[in-house]
User: Fold this.
Amino acid sequence: MVVAGTSATTRRRLTPQDWVTAALAVIAEGGLAAVAVEPLAQRLGTSKGSFYWHFENRDALLTAALARWEEQYTAAVTAENTRAGADPVQRLRLLIRRVTTLAETDSVYVALIATAGHPAVAPVLTRITEQRIDYTAALFRDIGFPAREARYRSLLAYSAHLGHTELARSAPGALPRGRADREAYLQHVVTTLTTPRALRGSSRPA
Amino acid sequence: MVVAGTSATTRRRLTPQDWVTAALAVIAEGGLAAVAVEPLAQRLGTSKGSFYWHFENRDALLTAALARWEEQYTAAVTAENTRAGADPVQRLRLLIRRVTTLAETDSVYVALIATAGHPAVAPVLTRITEQRIDYTAALFRDIGFPAREARYRSLLAYSAHLGHTELARSAPGALPRGRADREAYLQHVVTTLTTPRALRGSSRPA
DNA sequence: GCAGAACCATACGCCACCGTATGGTTCCCT
DNA sequence: AGGGAACCATACGGTGGCGTATGGTTCTGC
Assistant:
């Protein structure tokens, strides 16, 4: 053998991280329920014996996988956003765009909100949710909205985000299809969510 | 025995409808996966023998349950809405309110969007989704928005609705708590989603 | 008041998965 | 080189669910 170490495609021995990676992969494909020890072992070309050496049980793997995902996910989003200049309006818009495309990309996220009730998932999800809503609300305050409205707007924006994610999964046909149409819709969303209302008092259109 | 017939609390013989009702109940409680024949039988105080007399298999029950739910659900919403006067703005607002509270009520709906991928669920969900988006888009057109914007607004509104439903499940703590706060938030949502934008062209706030 | 249909109970075989036990390999250190 | 630790394979028992088989019970028409 020429190459030893941890990076060859056919590694002889597995680390817990390998199992976590595989777990996240199958979560993305088939949801939480798809994380089964024996199939995973097969997928990794090994056996349960390996698994139960590295992990206490299935739940431990789940927890580890969720922890790693949460870390990477939040890190990715916030990092991307905070280094995006100081203008809160720009940052908000960037956040919306980023998170929208991410929602259609990260199928782990989608799988998790599909299993929000699971004891291992719930805390992760509430953490992420509240943190993001808070973050967005702060952005709205920075823009100049009063605290209460900032929170409302944040809630609405986050709801729209979650729903969009769901739509992308359950009825993608309903979403704008072409590249240009998608872009126009996104623009519409950003504007609607971030623009102050026209006339206070009477909001009735013609 | 004094009372015979089909309405006593302890009925001797079961109908498929009884099974469907029970199925919907456990879907509401524990999701699709909770629909298991043996536990259901136990819950109904009977045995699998009964079940497999009335249904081909578990999937048949699922399909029947979903069909009944879809019927009742769409009927409830559209009926409630169409007999609500002719003013499209009023109807839209009423729809939003109605559907928002419904989302926190009907746990079957929530359970279903959590299992949107399931072959028995997907068609039901896409039907409901597209139908509602279309309906809402028509409402926006009636209000006076051009077709494209009407569709965008409808999409956004529906996304927000879906997301709100998810939020109510996975992080209810993030939603407005008190009765009054909830009401104010709802008002905010309705206004934001239905009010035409202030200035075309420049949508940049101060 | 009984025959046949409708309905239900029990027992069984099957499968997929979890977790354990136990004995092999392979590595690493000296 | 050889011994212990790290790692993996295989076999096993257990559980929970699906679907079938087969015989029992209740209802209904005549």
Notes: The first helix of chain A runs from residue 16 to 30. The radius of gyration of chain A is 21 Å.
